[in-house]
Amino acid sequence: MTTDPRQAALTAATTPEPWDILVIGGGASGLGTAVEAATRGYRTLLLEAHDYAKGTSSRSTKLVHGGVRYLAQGNVSLVREALYERGLLKRNAPHLVRDLGFLIAAYKWWAAPFYGIGLKMYDLLAGKLNLQASRYVNKAQALARTPTLKQAGLKGGILYFDGQFDDSRLAITLMRSLEDHGGVTLNHAPVVGLIREGSRVVGARFRDDETGQEHEVRAKAVVNATGVFVDDIRRMERSDVKPMLSPSQGVHVVVDRRFLPGDSAIMVPRTDDGRVLFAVPWHDHVVIGTTDTPVPETSLEPRALPEEIDFILRTAAQYMDPAPTRADVRSVYVGLRPLVKAAEGTDTKSLSRDHVIRISDGGLITLTGGKWTTYRRMGEDTVNRAAAQAGLPERLSLTAGLKLHGATQADLPDHWKVYGTDAEWVQTLPGANQKLHQALPYTEAEVRWAARAEQARTVEDVLSRRLRALLLNAQASIEAAPRVAAILAEELGRDQAWQAGQVRAYTDVAQGYVLR
């Protein structure tokens, strides 16, 4: 057993000295805000109730993009901002972001020129940070890039470029970057109440889920960045507050790479319900999605509706040959979008994807909306507001040029690339050549690294977010869980009963990702 790093983090978090900025929430918006604050030299603490990117931030379509469909809606400013941030993210985290070609197949004579014009505007809005210019491809070129595209009636297509990334690995990279710049961060530490002096919010009470002990922390500014759960925190300040969000869920299915063996993704610009659909190569698998279904309430583990899965597979079958069936699905995952409420009767496809910052009468700063691509801009805007409100010394933002933890241009093997410069250290640990499961690419050394360097505390932390086993092959991940539990128990000093409980808890969660 190595020294458990959690106690040092807990001691640092509970210092009696007030923090400059306390961030509640360890997803895209919370981590972006905390990194922004720490790099400006503000004393920063982040508290996460479960684990970094536990919710929507680990369940995206894996794209760093401007949002082609927002351009079709006329939201040019949102697209321009996202394209700019896409370019910065590729530059600042080259180990996590790569260029990916997307093919829009043309089966009607007018489709290629119609979409080609729109995508030229997409290129122009990206300016000098554009990845590659969009272009027309003929039928043979389209099939060379996407061999499983349906050939009957295919005229050619438009090829454009966006970014692809690993969402929860970016979250872990931001957590490490936060620590690199003096910030303190703690997961499995849910906020259970806000501290007020008079009407002002001056801190929070949180519970250490591993001991059950509660602690108080004080801060000059408190940021609520809990994604789809922001209203839960807002109600801690005022129980009758009106909800901000109209959440919707997006479903994805994951299948084997043989269904999309080329080097490009497929983008369907208009599905039967008026959305776009992607089939994207990712970690030697293919992610297909997504849907946009309003949901009445938020959940940590939302579940796909049967009709959503049918819709995805039915739409994929219109473009792919062979097309995946239910029997081919390795995993189904669902993310909830924090869409800010609009007028009654507005469908979720029309709600703003831009981020929103609201400050309560008591000074609680709530950030919600947005997407992974613009996480840095969300953080910058939020810290600007928080610093002004708290009277912190004015300091320039540095994150536009900040290389994130592990950043490297080195051409690492695909499996190790997400670790960046840490990859060589991971491979020195015991089990670097011992796979966890034959259907998964991951090794025992990565479990040890997750516990020692990346704050993994549970089997789910490891198999879902440090490694992506749950999303790549849910059943294989269940079979790997006992070995992961044993390694974690060795690293963290846990007993057999803890291991058994971890395997049960993980299996309960992972069964929801297996398509029956």
TrEMBL record:
<dbReference type="InterPro" id="IPR031656">
    <property type="entry name" value="DAO_C"/>
</dbReference>
<dbReference type="Pfam" id="PF01266">
    <property type="entry name" value="DAO"/>
</dbReference>
<feature type="domain" description="FAD dependent oxidoreductase">
    <location>
        <begin position="20"/>
        <end position="374"/>
    </location>
</feature>
<comment type="similarity">
    <text>Belongs to the FAD-dependent glycerol-3-phosphate dehydrogenase family.</text>
</comment>
<dbReference type="Pfam" id="PF16901">
    <property type="entry name" value="DAO_C"/>
</dbReference>
<keyword id="KW-0274">FAD</keyword>
<keyword id="KW-0560">Oxidoreductase</keyword>
<dbReference type="InterPro" id="IPR036188">
    <property type="entry name" value="FAD/NAD-bd_sf"/>
</dbReference>
<protein>
    <submittedName>
        <fullName>Glycerol-3-phosphate dehydrogenase</fullName>
    </submittedName>
</protein>
<dbReference type="InterPro" id="IPR000447">
    <property type="entry name" value="G3P_DH_FAD-dep"/>
</dbReference>
<keyword id="KW-0319">Glycerol metabolism</keyword>
<dbReference type="InterPro" id="IPR006076">
    <property type="entry name" value="FAD-dep_OxRdtase"/>
</dbReference>
<feature type="domain" description="Alpha-glycerophosphate oxidase C-terminal">
    <location>
        <begin position="409"/>
        <end position="497"/>
    </location>
</feature>
<keyword id="KW-0285">Flavoprotein</keyword>
<dbReference type="InterPro" id="IPR038299">
    <property type="entry name" value="DAO_C_sf"/>
</dbReference>
